Amino acid sequence: MLKLRDKIGSQWDAERFVARITANPSRPLPTREHEALFLKAGSANSPPGFRAYLAFASDIAAAGFHGPEGQALVELPSALSYLADGDVVVVDPRRAEIAVVYRKCSPFNSMLVTERCNNNCVMCSQPPRKSDDQFRVRELLEIIPLIDVNTRSLVITGGEPTLLVDDLLKIVLACRNFLPCTALLVLSNGRFFSYLSYCRALAEIKHPDLMIAVPLYSDLANQHNFIVQADGAFDQTLRGIMNLARCGHKVEIRTVIHKLNVERLAAFAQFIVRNLPYVHHVALMGLEIVGHTRANLEALWIDPGEYRDALGRAVSELRLHRIPVSIYNHPLCMLDREFWPYARQSISDWKNMFLDACAHCAVRNRCCGFFSSSMVLHSSHVRSIAFSELPPNASCFGE
């Protein structure tokens, strides 16, 4: 598990700032004011002009590093030894903190745009908070131009991003302008898209590869509304999905499987087939044991091994009607082999782990593994799959 936020060994009185990391002291002068030069043992002290200078404590002690006079030298913790060229960080000098907000080598980069939400889902992994989002918007509009233009995908998440209203449109526009080849996935509860004018405003940006991922937790209004703890949410969400499709947006339906909705999983798939056949993708997701899930664990937890058949029926229903479907957050040993081609390595690398039982598994390199929070509770059906169990001369992954 990677650490994305940590304390730094230096503190001074200055505002938070964003910087892209570089190890090249010969960067052009106009770019240096947005970059932090990474100093390593054996390198010479750097030229002036960079926004900051970064070094690990051991290198500072060994080489006597110092930044140019009047420039910040940030002493990095060893937990961030993975930092590399092209990564983007936010440094808070007054709090003596650093946050890694983009990693060039990772396929799991996301941008938290708000902690506010108009739902309060019983299994929310990031419970909503009332907060001032303007500093996030300002920072994101600084971060986006620093992200590598070849980044394959980015996720916009919250909270509920549409609560930013026009500011969300500014962020999507910045992604279109600075990252035209990067697929953008916006995680939204869909309720604000019940306003057709907002869907049209988003469509007018003409982002070349934008998808809106909307959670729907049941085919029954009362069940969905209870799970999200918001009256009327089911109707608003469905109107939002229909408006998005009407304006030409790609829509993904997501559902998190737990004890409150698992019995209707197959019926839920049939509901999508009959009422939302135009969606581009359906994601069936396992439970992450953080946030509200911990508080509601007794009401929510069901061993994935116990709903294997129900999950298989839901996938089969969607597959039969040619609706693309994926299974997220489920280890391969929790699935019948015919559904392995639908399982995705979906857990962000910084919070991904495997259990001791997985050490010698034949398909570990293709398995999503577990959330780090699974140390609290995980399936009793976890097992290592032997090489002898795999069919000879045939792929188990539909390749």
Architecture overview:
It is a single chain. The protein folds into 2 domains: 5-102, Glucose Oxidase, domain 1 (3-Layer(bba) Sandwich); 110-389, Alpha-Beta Barrel (TIM Barrel), CATH 3.20.20.70. It is 24% helix and 18% strand. The model has no long low-confidence stretch (mean pLDDT 92). The strands form 3 sheets. It has a 7-stranded mixed beta sheet with strand order 1-7-6-2-3-4-5. A 7-stranded parallel beta sheet has the order 8-9-10-11-12-13-14, with helices on one face. It is built from 11 helices and 16 strands. With 399 residues, the chain is of the alpha/beta class.
Alpha carbon gap, first and last residue: 30 Å
Strand order of the largest sheet: 1-7-6-2-3-4-5
In percent, how helical is the residue content?
Answer: 10-25%
User: Radius of gyration in whole Å, from Cα?
Assistant: 23 Å
Uncertain residue ranges: none
Say what the CATH topology of the largest domain is. Answer: TIM Barrel
**CATH class descriptor name of the largest domain:** Alpha Beta
Assembly of the depicted chains: single chain
CATH arch. level architecture of the largest domain: Alpha-Beta Barrel
How is the secondary structure organized here?
Layout lengths: L4 E3 L9 E6 L6 H4 L2 E4 L13 E5 H7 L9 E4 L11 E5 L4 E6 L7 E3 L21 H10 L9 E5 L8 H13 L4 E5 L8 H9 L5 E6 L5 H8 L4 H14 L3 E7 L8 H11 L5 E5 L6 H4 L1 H4 L7 H13 L4 E4 L23 E2 L16 E2 L28
Parallel strand pairs: 2-3, 3-4, 4-5, 8-9, 9-10, 10-11, 11-12, 12-13, 13-14
Antiparallel strand pairs: 1-7, 2-6, 6-7, 15-16
Helix pairs in contact: 8-11
